[in-house]
Design goal:
Distance between the termini of chain B: 50 Å
Helix content of chain A: over 70%
Strand content of chain B: under 5%
Oligomer: heterodimer
Strand content of chain A: under 5%
Largest sheet of chain A: none
Low-confidence stretches of chain B: none
Largest interface: A-B, 97 and 73 residues
Number of strands of chain A: 0
Helix content of chain B: over 70%
Shape of chain A: globular
Number of domains of chain A: 2
Structural class of chain A: mainly alpha
Structural class of chain B: mainly alpha
Number of strands of chain B: 0
Largest sheet of chain B: none
Number of helices of chain A: 11
Radius of gyration of chain A: 19 Å
Shape of chain B: extended
Order of helices and strands of chain A: HHHHHHHHHHH
């Protein structure tokens, strides 16, 4: 009886999502292990519960899409870090532009090449292209170029969780001299998760990673209609 | 006179109150959406909102302290806002099989490529600029 009530379900899933998220964050605060990252734990637990309750994505998202809508004001909020890092931007903009353009081209090119190599279909391929961007930007680009935004969100999360660890390893392997390159590596390759990792290493590298993450997201969103046009079908 | 004291009260409220800042940011988002709808710009409303907020900050029409705490809240809690979208996996049971492994391979290999190429190119450019004495 209660299960058929849409409002009740919406409330239940919203409270459950927020509650699990808050619990995962508290847990991570106490014990910071990568496999305890809220980025991994929150969706994993929710998935388990949804599968156990035989809930479909349609039903779940109906009750929780208001949370996803808040990605838009979160996108607006990126104006604040851009403004706060304006001196960094003014000083290093040529290198940042180089990093963002190379990074974007490599991200799209590698996704395309690897998808072909592995025989992934068109939908998956298009949804994979924006995986390196921060979620709100990635979902916009995905929709623009013909991918599935929610599938892209899944790939973005995987990229973040794995990318933060991969990036840490690569930083010790690559003979990089500048913090600019170190920050660009993490911000370009692993968006928010990479930026958080970068801040753990060094304040300056973190600021660079954050700036790269925002700028690459903006560039891709603005270029998305053009990219959609250029993609071979 | 009255208008002035109103502005002062509003400012004080915004600087100390995160909720007021959150509402203000929602306002910038709605303004962005409105402009996108009215002009048919091919840019999402959120991006237009970001540009307007940046213009306000850059021209000092708005003090950074009036929005900083609200923006930090939105960015810090962003994970919560996209977690529901991740549940889309429920609609794609095929991802748990071979396809999932292939995608994982593509993501890992792709991320290594993106990170390596980006960092190496930026580092090379940095060294070149440095040798030219430009940074």
């Amino acid at each position: 009886m209660l299960r058929d009530n849409g409002l009740f379900q919406a409330l239940l899933w919203s409270v459950l999502t927020i509650g699990l998220y808050a619990a995962a964050k508290t847990l991570y605060h106490r014990k910071a292990r990568w496999w305890l990252s809220p980025l991994l734990i929150t969706p994993a637990l929710l998935l388990l519960i949804a599968v156990a309750a035989k809930e479909s994505y349609q039903e779940y998202i109906q009750g929780t899409h208001w949370l996803v809508a808040l990605l838009a004001p979160a996108t607006v909020s990126f104006a604040v870090p851009i403004y706060e890092q304006r001196s960094l931007l003014r000083r290093h903009w040529p290198l940042l532009v180089v990093g963002i353009l190379t990074g974007s081209a490599t991200a799209m090119g590698s996704a395309w090449m690897l998808s072909n190599l592995l025989g992934l279909d068109e939908t998956v391929r298009l949804s994979l292209l924006p995986r390196s961007l921060s979620t709100p930007f990635a979902m916009i680009v995905s929709g623009d170029i013909g991918g599935v935004p929610s599938l892209t969100a899944v790939f973005v999360v995987i990229t973040g969780v794995l990318g933060a660890a991969l990036g840490e390893g690569l930083l010790t392997w690559l003979p990089l001299r500048s913090s600019l390159a170190r920050g660009a590596l993490l911000g370009m390759g692993a968006h928010g998760a990479g930026t958080a990792k970068a801040y753990q290493i060094d304040e300056e590298i973190g600021a660079i990673a954050g700036l790269v993450m925002v700028l690459v997201g903006l560039l891709n969103v603005l270029a998305a209609p053009l990219i959609a046009h250029l993609l071979p079908r | 006179m009255n208008g002035f004291s109103h502005t002062v009260a509003w400012r004080r409220c915004c600087r100390s109150n995160r909720l007021a800042q959150i509402v203000l940011i929602l306002g910038f988002w709605l303004a962005g959406e409105g402009i996108t709808r009215a002009t048919g710009l091919p840019v999402p409303g959120a991006i237009v909102g970001l540009a307007i907020l940046l213009a306000f900050l850059g021209n000092k029409w708005l003090n950074i302290r009036t929005v900083r705490r609200g923006a930090q809240w939105f960015l810090a809690e962003m994970l919560l806002f996209f977690v529901p979208a991740v549940l889309a996996v429920l609609d794609h049971p095929e991802l748990t099989g071979i396809l999932g492994l292939k995608i994982l391979t593509a993501i890992i290999a792709g991320t290594i490529m993106v990170m390596t190429v980006t960092a190496v190119v930026v580092d090379l450019c940095y060294r070149i600029r440095r040798s030219q004495g430009r940074c």
